[in-house]
Amino acid sequence: MDLLFFEDCYHRSRLSGHITASAWTLTSDYSHVAMLHHKKLDRWLQPGGHADGNENVLEVAKKELREETGVSDIKVVGRSFYDLDIHSIPERKGIQEHEHFDVRFMFIANNPEQLKKNNESFEVAWIPLAELDNLVDREASIMRMKHKTLALHDLHR
Fold first, then answer.
1. Which residues, listed in sequence order, are joined to residue 106 by a DSSP beta bridge?
2. φ and ψ at 111, to 5 degrees?
3. 91 falls in which pLDDT band (50, 70, 90)?
């Protein structure tokens, strides 16, 4: 018997939690990461967003990267997702607190000059990895991706 559990997990209407996707996007020398200062959350984050019914989370991550930063000329690093994070989103505007199951992909920007902000963020910037810690207040999941990036870059030197 083939059962599909949580068939609505790709929709934000699943209030207990739902799938999101994000883009950990680096310059080709692995020295800078694309980050945005998110207006709603007032935090620096990697680009990302809701799947909104799209089960192809890689495509969701690419779409969010393009919409939130203008960066579209990219190369996917690896054959699968880069990181998976489960984090709580606080109650806001009548939507209860819920969890995001964030599937994260790593990209290299072939044309970092494409970077531009949209109306969802206060600012978008290429942040040096060396300066990321304080900017994100040492948020554990971002620090995890940073350390994985540094280890991966060291392997390819």
1. 24, 77
2. -135, 80
3. confident
